[in-house]
């Protein structure tokens, strides 16, 4: 205690100088270290500022490039999307054309069936499997084939519309995603260090955006566009096929319809000619019947006129057979009277036979007249069916191009 309360130890001048030198050197070292640290910190600040600025510029550049990429592919996708929309509308028009064409087949088909049915009402020999019936059966076959073909084409159009709508759906979904991505990247590109509401958290974003590589992202765009291009080409081919098909089927139906019409005209002309010939035959037959009736009457008159001379000759012979004795002579008068009776009997017999033949011929003429009248009626019925009923059925039919 006495040591502590005593006067302090005194240092030598050398110690004092040494202590000062130590303090000087320590202070100089610390100041030098501080200066180096300050310079290093300044360099680090400048480097970080430069790096930060460079990174922001690079990020800004990449964002802008990304935005340009998105815009490019969005425009490409939007173009294909609009093409798909237009193609669907066009296919719907083509579908409507095919439906109208299919619907238009109904009337000609029904008319053809009605013509085939009504021509079954022809009678007798006119119920023939003629060229008209062959052409009507061909017409029925052509229309049935056209209807089957159009129905199949309609199904193809519906399937193509479905495929294009599927492509359109994925294009629209991709466009929506890219629109949202572009909107987000536009927002990011506009952000600055002074922008309000910056994210102050320390969330780990290292795993974000690693699901799809840029190459895969671009390949998906290319895939959607290639699918759209493929379906568009398929649609163009289908539309060309439909155009050709509608034109060809209409031409086939029109050609067959005209062929059937020509067959009808020819058959009607043939029937009219046959009917005219039959009517001429009937007129000639009626004239011949009148002549035969006159001939029959003249035979009856002739027979009646022979009756009196025959009776006179017989009476003379009978009377001369009463001559007495030798007067009963076979004289020239007797000979002549015998010849007269014989000849008159022969004439009467021949006239009577001719009368019978005339009566038989008259009956035959009457039967033939009835047959001709029946045949004329058959032709009249056939003409009514072909020229009136079938013509009225077929007249309103028009084969349109759709």
Care to describe what's here?
- Belongs to the tektin family.
- The protein contains five helices and no strands.
- The protein is mainly alpha-helical.
- It folds into two domains: 53-191 and 214-273, Orthogonal Bundle (Helix Hairpins); 282-321 and 331-394.
- Helix 1 (13-104) runs parallel beside helix 4 (214-320) and helix 4 (214-320) runs antiparallel to helix 5.
- The longest helix is centred in the middle third of the chain and has 107 residues, at 214-320.
- The model has no long low-confidence stretch (mean pLDDT 86).
**In CATH terms, what is the architecture of the largest domain?**
Orthogonal Bundle
Q: Element order, helices and strands?
A: HHHHH
Number of strands: 0
Helix content: over 70%
Helix tally equals: 5
- What would the principal axes of the Cα set say about the shape? rod-shaped
The Cα radius of gyration reads: 63 Å
